[in-house]
Amino acid sequence: MSQPTVKFKSPFWLYRLSTILKSIKTLYTLSPEKIDAFLNSYDIYDHDWANEEHLVQKMGVNYYEEVKRKLVDYYCVLNHLCAIGHVEKMYIPPAMDLSVGILENQTLFERKMSQDLAVGKGSKVLDIGCGRGRIASHIASLTGAEVTGINIDPDQLESAQQFALRNGLSNQCQFKWGDLNEIPFSFPDQTFDALYHVQVFSLSKDLLKLFKEMNRIMKPGARFVCLDWVSLSNYDPKDPDHAALMKRIKPLIGAIGTPSAEEYVKLLKKAGFKIITSENASIDGLQAPLIENADRFFTRATKAIKFLVRWKILPAHFKALFDRLTKDGEAFVTADRLRLVTTSHYIVAQKK
């Protein structure tokens, strides 16, 4: 297995073992309230930002406060579930090399992204929706840049800070609470030399407003790079089979909004960006081999979890958590192979 560029102070396998054990311990000690909150959080993915009337009808005029609370309920548990497998960074990467697995393809993608950010030592980079901060630390290690990560989940921010500290990157990486829907951001005009995110902006309820705010805090000529979830031209929302697949996939990947690739680019241009690249970064546009890889691992893990629960080695709530996590993986594979949606659309844009 190829190793990430971050120079771990212990062998990579030992780091992964410690991470897995820590996540299992966290999940073991979850309160009934947190378990229920996580399982109930999935209902936000029954909505779409484009249908605000439905959101207001279900949650009231201040619907975003409930959405935000449920997002935290979702991610503060999900990040530990994902850390047990090969998706500690909580994203399926583009399939860039089919001879290797998820971790190696994440490394390949992040190297590509670091090059396209066009930054170096001393540059200031913003990671929106930084999660556990593993990507931010990798980008800092690859480029020498100073990376600021923002996220709404304190649990993930703490993990990000500890990871950077353990790996000698605390001088290059800082992590702070931030909500991509609370605009304006706290940063002054023209602060950043580059900005990126990985599969986060489906959580933006107003992409144009967000893109304009990004433009404000970026320096002239600064680059924006992202990997994101989009619907593709084959997707027909009026087709009942397509709609059913979409309904199953959105909770699996944590998507609320579902922009098309064309809409995404159009809004970026409207916000003052020049598009350099807009393409599917996977070989032949398909992530399915890697999605299947992750689905197989977690399906097998779920079988093992059920055995351990049956023998009372693990508490019963482990079964409920893993059943929810592994639900509908085959729907994602089907939609990917039909080229209806993807989470590997790659965009490089530049502030004019």
Structural features, described:
With 352 residues, the protein is an alpha/beta fold. It has helices at 12-28, 32-41, 52-59, 63-83, 102-117, 134-143, 154-166, 207-217, 240-253, 261-270, 288-310, 317-325, 329-337, and strands at 124-128, 146-151, 173-177, 192-198, 218-231, 273-280, 341-351. The chain has a seven-stranded mixed sheet with strand order 3-2-1-4-5-7-6, sandwiched between helices. The longest helix has 23 residues, at 288-310.
Secondary-structure blueprint:
Blueprint (H helix, E strand, L loop, with lengths): L11 H17 L3 H10 L10 H8 L3 H21 L18 H16 L6 E5 L5 H10 L2 E6 L2 H13 L6 E5 L14 E7 L8 H11 E14 L8 H14 L7 H10 L2 E8 L7 H23 L6 H9 L3 H9 L3 E11 L1
Parallel strand pairs: 1-2, 1-4, 2-3, 4-5
Antiparallel strand pairs: 5-7, 6-7
Helix pairs in contact: 1-4, 2-4, 2-12, 5-6, 8-10, 9-13, 11-12, 11-13
Short descriptors:
about 350 residues, alpha/beta
Question: Quick one: overall form?
Answer: globular
Residue-averaged pLDDT: 96
Structural class: alpha/beta
Low-confidence stretches: none
- The radius of gyration computed from the alpha-carbon positions, rounded to a whole number of angstroms, is 19 Å
Distance between the termini: 40 Å
What is the H-and-E element order?
Answer: HHHHHEHEHEEHEHHEHHHE
Q: Approximately what portion of the residues adopt beta-strand conformation?
A: 15-25%
Q: Count of helices?
A: 13
Describe the sheet with the most strands: 7 strands, mixed
Number of strands: 7
Concise account of the structure shown:
The chain has 352 residues and is of the alpha/beta class. The chain has 13 helices and seven strands. Helix content is 49%, strand content 16%.
